[in-house]
């Protein structure tokens, strides 16, 4: 994820982070389920305070664009990417089914790619 902060911009840094993540999700660069960097890591990378990035993540979550899963991190939601809920539910059901069958993730992905012809 390549974000940049313009210290001379009219928008505060948290808003720049928020809008860039939202745009990356909307254009498909960040797919539904993509894990965002931890707050402290992204803050260090961008040269910002952790509270600044935390505020951006909080606002994204309030808008339904990301979901925080505690220790599992913050992930992009299907809503942010425009992915339909039915498609997301089908993907989750497939993942659960392949796990229950003991199919390794690499094999499960290969099966999907074959089914899609890619």
UniProtKB/TrEMBL annotation:
InterPro entries: Tscrpt_reg_HTH_GntR, WH-like_DNA-bd_sf, WH_DNA-bd_sf. Gene3D superfamilies: Winged helix-like DNA-binding domain superfamily/Winged helix DNA-binding domain. Keywords: DNA-binding, Transcription, Transcription regulation. The keyword Transcription regulation applies. Residues 11-79 form the HTH gntR-type domain. It comes from the Bacteria. Pfam families: GntR. The keyword Transcription regulation applies. This is GntR family transcriptional regulator. It comes from Actinoplanes palleronii.
């Amino acid at each position: 994820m390549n974000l940049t902060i313009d210290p001379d911009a009219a928008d505060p840094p948290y808003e720049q982070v928020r809008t860039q993540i939202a745009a990356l999700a909307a254009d498909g660069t960040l797919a539904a389920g993509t894990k965002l960097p931890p707050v402290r890591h992204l803050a260090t990378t961008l040269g910002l305070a952790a509270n600044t990035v935390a505020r951006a993540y909080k606002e994204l979550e309030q808008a339904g664009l990301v979901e925080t899963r505690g220790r599992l991190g913050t992930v992009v939601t299907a809503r942010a990417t425009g992915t339909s809920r039915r498609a997301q539910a089908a993907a989750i059901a497939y993942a659960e089914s392949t796990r229950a069958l003991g199919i390794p993730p690499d094999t499960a992905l290969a099966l999907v790619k074959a089914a899609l012809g890619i």
